[in-house]
Each structure stands twice: as structure tokens, then as C-alpha cells.
Amino acid sequence: MTAIKADIGSIGGHLKPSQALLAQVETTIAKRAKGLIIDHFVGHTGDDIAILLTHERGTKSEEVHRLTWDAFQAGTEVAKKQGLYGAGQDLLKDAFSGNVRGLGPAVAEMTFEERESEPFLLFTADKTEPGAYSLPVYLAFADPMYNAGLILSPAMGEGFTFTVMDVSHAEQDRLIELSTPEEAYDLAALLRDNGRFVVESVCSRADGQQAVACSTTRLRNIAGKYVGKDDPIMLIRTQKNFPATGEILAPYEIGHLVAGFMRGSHTGPLMPVKAGTGVSFFDGPPIVSCLAFCVHEGKLTEPVDVFDQPYWDWVRNRIAQKAHDIRAQGFSGPAMLPQADLEYSGIKEAMGKLEKRFHIRE
Fold first, then answer.
1. CA geometry: angle at 214 spanning 213 and 220, to 5°?
2. How many domains does the chain have?
3. What pTM value is reported for the model?
4. Which of 7, 136, 171, 229 sees the fewest Cβ atoms within 10 Å?
5. In this structure, are 308 and 200 located in the same domain?
6. pLDDT, tens only, 230-261
């Protein structure tokens, strides 16, 4: 199963892709689906388009990745014709080179044998970074305060193995594997730094099956400069030896603070929103949507929008207040990211000039 996501153009700034753009991506996938993929789904969160594909070609399949690359390229042409903002923004290379990793789009993939019933969740986020998923994943898979199954289910009680990537190491993939519950504190020590250490995958220790696949793409590592926030995508299998759907969703009521918002350079709460929601306030707030599916023999059911339920309206209202409170602080302190994490160079250039004007009082 492959989920790939990219910003290739939107209306009115960084708000929402056009219907023509979405239709072109869908048409390109549908025309070439036969014999390559089993089923597919195309949707969007904010200004990012997500493509979900089921197939039997494993991860990093050149044919599958080329299909999505070509769909994004075709969509980009529509975006250019419509004069959409940021046309092709996340397509950072000119030519396809075997798979889309390292080309800009965010990728989450996993290979598994279908269970008798195979429910899973597709998470898509906008105006934030891959590390935005790390806390909810940690709480759902390692904290019984959010996942009662860790103490109720013997299989889940055996714990999980987390693979964490150091995304600041741009030359190669630098990884570490940590097992919970024994190494839960060590895992927490890493995951406190959302900007550097990111959960890439989680596997059950009871049967070795993979439960989580998360994108770890850092666009600035590819482009060498700010070209947009990373806007991660994630797949999570649920139930049986994995957390229940409700246990996976529960941590999203926190609205935990992540990097993102305007110009990718601020701090804001991650708001769980209905699928297809655009962004608005201060190019934000950072948002995440989630669709639930079942898959059988590669065929997808229709999606269920898990955040389209009255409880989450209350959550959104609370998080909106949280967003207001931190934005009221403007540029000061933790409301804006530290200099090392700023995605624009203006402040760094200004500080360089001012540094020369400091003097020591005698």
C-alpha cells in the first residue's frame, strides 16, 4: 500500500487545490490503473493532494511511484494553466529517478498480508512538519493513559518497536530502533525534538507486523532552501494486535503545539479537521485530517471521515482558542520558531548585520 502527497498548486495562495486540478490527478491515475494497481483514492487536506494506492508490487516500486509522479506532473500543468499559486511547488526535481523519495512528495508505504478484516487510517497534514505525528503515535502505541489496550490486550502488552529517523542528517538515512515499554523514556527523550527525530514506522513485538508508516521528507534538505512546509502523510493499521481506531485518534484532542503556520516559521496547535478542509487563519492553523478504510483483496471501501463527528467540533473550538492565544504573542519567544529552525533567512540576515554593530561598554 502506497500513500503519496504533494502541493502542486492552490487557489488564492496556500489555501485549497482547484476542482480541475484534483480531477486531472484522478483521471491520470484511473487511465493507467489497469494491471498496475488494484484500487486508488484521491483527496486533499489544505492545499496538498494525497494519492492512496493498493497494489502487489511492494514498497519503492518504480512503476507505482512513476504513476503518482506523472499524475502530479499532469496536475501541475493544469495548475499552471489556471494560474494557481505554487504550481508544482513540491516537485523539486525535473526528472523522475526510480521513485519519488528525494524528489519532494511525502511518501508512506507498507507491505502486509491482509487480515480477515483489515481496517486502516490515512492521516494527511498541512502547514506542519513530519514530527507533528510523533507525539500522537507515541501516546497511542506506548501510553496506557491513551491506549487501554496496552494493559487489556496480551498481544499489545508485549509492546512495539519504533523506528526513528534523524531527519537533520541529510546525506543518508540515520535510524534507531527502540522497543517499548522498556525504552519508552529513551524514546520520549528523542521525540521531544519534533524538528529532528521523527517516527518512521512502528511494528508489533507480538507478531512483527508493521502498524505505522510515516513520511519523513524534509523539503529543505532536498531543495537547500525553504520551499514550503513538509506536510506529512501517514498510514496506520488498526485493531486486533494494534491499537483500536479510537485509541489512535484520542491524542489528537490535545491540539499539541507543532512547527508550521505562516511561512512555516511559527508554532501552532495541530487541529483535527474534516477531510477536504482548506486553511485560512495565518496560513493555518496546522491541520490534520484522517480517513478510515477497510481493504479486502486490495479493494478499498468508501472512506469514513473520522473527524467529522460532533465531539471534534468541541475539540476544534478549544484548539482555535489555543491558536489565538499563541498568535497573540506575535513574533516573541516560543510563538515563532528559534532561529535555527526558521524557514526564511530574513531574520538571520538582519541579525548578521546587527551583530557587527554591537560594542562593549568600557
1. 150
2. 2
3. 0.93
4. 171
5. yes
6. 789 999 999 999 999 999 999 999 999 999 99
